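[step 3/7] fold_predict: job queued, chain A
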Amino acid sequence: MGPARLQRIIDCIMSEHVVQLFDLQKKNCEKVRATSVSQRIEKLRRLQRNILAKQNQIEKALYEDLRKAPQETGLCEIYQVTSEIKHACRHLRQWTQPRRLNNPLIFFGSRASIRYEPRGMCLILSPWNYPLLLALGPVISAVAAGNCVILKPSEVSPYTSQFLQTLMEETFPREEVAVVQGDQTVATELLDLPFHHVFFTGSPAVGKIVMQAAARNLASVTLELGGKSPVIVDETYDLKDAAKKIVWGKLLNAGQTCVAPDYLLIPESRQKEFIGLAMNSSRKMYDRAAENPDYCKIISRRHIDRLQELLKDSIDRGANVEMGGHFDESRLYFSPTILSNVSLDSSILNEEIFGPILPVVPYQNLEEALHFVNQKPRPLSLYIFSTNTTTVNTILNRTHSGGVCINDVAVQFGNLELPFGGINNSGIGNAHGLFGFRAFSHERAVLKQPRVGAMTFFYPPYTERMKKLIQWAIRYL
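[step 4/7] structure written:
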C-alpha cells in the first residue's frame, strides 16, 4: 500500500471520527444547556484542580514546544488560566441572571429582560504561540456559558496539544468537551460541520477563511487575530522606563505574542538614546540570548525562514541593524534585534512580525505619527508612552485599535475586567471574563405583556381619534 493511499484511509477514518463526535455532542447539547450554575462551577473547579496537579507536565510540554522557561510558563500560561477559572467561578451566578430592562411608556405594564443562554455546539481553533492559555481560555468561557465544545489545538505545538487532549479526557466527558488533533485538513473538516459558534485565534489571513466557512452554516464567530500593534513614545516620557517595558513585551515568548509591540514610533531627537537604553535592557533580561534558558525558541524552521526574509528585505532597503540580526536555524534561534533607518515600504513595516525584531521609526511631530498608524489596518493593541494628558487623548481620539495600554505594554491582556479583542482586521468580538461568557452566550430578548397592554389602544379600525392618538404618541412618547 502506497503512502498516498494510506493517508487517504487515515483521513477517511479521522473524518468519520470527527462526525461521530459532533453527533454525540449534538445529542447531549440540551442536557448540557440545562446544567445549573453550581454544576458548571464544579466542572471549572475540576479543571483547575487537574491543571494544578499537572504543572510539571505543562512546563515540560511548553519547554518541548517553545523552550519556554518554567517561570514564564507559570506566569503567562498557568496563572492566566487559573485566574480565568477563579474569576468565572466568582461571577458566574451574577452573569447568568436575566438582566431587567426599562420600558418605553408605550409598553407600560410590560416586563423586558435579556436571558443569557448557551449558543450550543462550539468549535474552538487555538494557536501554537500560547498553546495552553489560548486553548483553555475560550474553553473556560464556553463551559461557563453551558455549551458543548470541540477543541482543535495547533499541530505546530504537538506536546501541548497532546497534553490538552489528556487533560480534557480526564476532566470532561467527551460528549461535553473533547479535543480533536490534526493538521489543517482536520480543521477544514470541522469547519464544514454546522457548529453554532466558532472561536478562532490566529492570523487575519486564516481568520478570513474561518469566517467564510462559518458563514456557510450561518454560525456566529469570535475571531482573535493580530496585526501590527504600534508603540508611540512622545517627548515627555522617561526613556529608560519605556525601553525596559517595550523590550520586555517585545521579547516575551521571543516576540511570538499577538499583543507584542510590533514597531516603535519615537521623536527623531530621542531615537538614538532609546536604542541605547533598549539594547541595555535586552542584555540585562537575556544576556547571551542564544544560551539563555529564559529566552524562547522560534516555533519552527518555517517561521525562522520568514523572519530571516523580513530582516534581509529590510537590510536590502537600507535598514541598519543596531543590535542582533543573528539566527541559527538548527536551534530555532533568532536573536533580539533592533532596526533603524527602516524603509517605509519594507515588508517588516507592512506585515505582522511575530518575532523578536523591533523596527524603530522616527517622527517629526505627532501628526506624522498618527498618519503612519492610521494608514495601516486597525491593530489589536496600541501602546502610548506619555505623561501629557492632551497627547494621550489626541491619540485615543484619532486612532482605532482593539485595545489600548498607556505607559506599559501587553499587560492589558491580564485584566479580566476588560474586554479583549480586535477590530476589523485584528478581530471580531471579545473574550475574557464576562465578555468571554457573552461571546459563548445568546442574548435572548424576552418581553412579558400584561393581559391588557397599551398597544391594544392602537389596534384597527384606524379612526380619526386613533390618528390623533398616534400623532400624540409621535410627539410625546
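[step 5/7] annotate
The first helix runs from residue 3 to 33.
The longest strand covers residues 111-118.
exit 0
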